[in-house]
Each structure stands twice: as C-alpha cells, then as structure tokens.
Amino acid sequence: QVQLVESGGGSVQAGGSLRLSCAVSTYMGGRHSMGWFRQAPGKEREGVAVIDSDGRTNYADSVKGRFTISRDNAKNTLYLQMNSLKPEDTAVYLCAARWGWSTSMRVSEYNYWGQGTQVTVSS
Length: 123
Hints:
Shape: globular
C-alpha cells in the first residue's frame, strides 16, 4: 500500500511562492506517475501537474509557466514549486500516484491519494 503525506501549504499574498512536498512511503518501481491535484470549495478536483517515471511532465494551462513539478527518487519525495501565486490558486492541494506510464490528469485514474494541504492566496 502506497501512502502519501503532503506538507508545505500555508497562506501567502498574491505574487508569492510556496513549495509543496509529498513524502511517499514506498518506492514505486516500474512505470508509474505522480501528480498534484487541487480542490477549491464547491469545485471539482482538478489536475495541476503530473510527472511520470521517465520524467515527462504535464501541466494544467492555468499554472503553466508558474508551477514546476519535480521528484527526488532518492528521497521518495514529490515537489511542487509554486511561483507568482494568484487568489484563484487557493485550494486544498493533494498528491496522488498511479501505476502505468501516463501523464494523464484524470482524477479517476489515480489509485493513491494523500490527505491534502491547504494553500490560501490573498489579494
């Protein structure tokens, strides 16, 4: 069973930066993908950024050029560097993982989820 624990959320003003981390309990060998998703109050969960085991990435249009996803395999940790934050980025950010080689951001395709970390951006 893969367990994911997010950290690094908080409150920042618009234009600020945050770095989220996701600690993975088990090394996921083979082909797999990991990603960041977010869910704002009253809205559906949406994909933010995904990285597969070959390092291919995919970003939501709304965060391209501002967010960067990365991973440290030696530390079993996934990161999301968020710059130039906007109030509309306010949400609970969740880390997720799936088996298979894909940069899909379909929520239903991810098998493992963390509990989430709150990010609040004020104007």
